[in-house]
Amino acid sequence: MTTVLFVGAGRHQRRAIEQARARGLRVVAVDRNPDAPGLVAADIAEVVDFMEIDAVVAVARRVGVDGVLTVSADRAVPVVAALAEELGLPAGVEVTEVREGTPAAEAGLRAGSGSATVDGQSYPTGGDVITSIDGKAVTTGAELQTAIDSKSPGDTVSITYSRDGKTTTVEVSLGTRPS
Fold this sequence. Notes:
The structure is a single chain. By secondary structure, the chain is an alpha/beta fold. It has two domains: 3-87, Rossmann fold (3-Layer(aba) Sandwich), CATH 3.40.50.20; 93-173, Pdz3 Domain (Roll), CATH 2.30.42. 29% of the residues lie in helices and 30% in strands. The chain has six helices and eleven strands. Strands 5, 8, 9, 10 and 11 form a five-stranded antiparallel beta sheet that branches. A four-stranded parallel beta sheet has the order 3-2-1-4, sandwiched between helices. β2, α2 and β3 (44-47) form a beta-alpha-beta unit. The longest helix is centred in the N-terminal third of the chain and has 12 residues, at 11-22. The mean pLDDT is 86.
């Protein structure tokens, strides 16, 4: 069974935790608030301040996690990246759309084909996860956008992504951004 670690277990994360469990994932949740509603929804709940990365890493190693994430918790994003790196897990940006005929399509990148709804918002799932551009890690959509925006049409970039647990690097010649 796949085990995921949710960083933060507040009211915004509770529904995502419930959705993950409904999809057959084993959920571990950490939050410094012992009354956080997501802790009750998780399979394994740990009262840990997620800003104490060493303590969260200890939890993750003890229970054996396959992935780490957060939902609606900007403060936790750098923590997720640090945890993924420390645990040797891929961290990156999920591909949500690949338009036909684009360099991304020609490179074989795949968008998510599933979806999950959290707090009334639908999110695509199952797409490739871009982990680096030209060897530089990207963990947020903003970092990915900055990396691409620093290039010009015709430039070639090296994109590293994760799919089904395998890491692949492809060279992509950038085109003009679709409007």
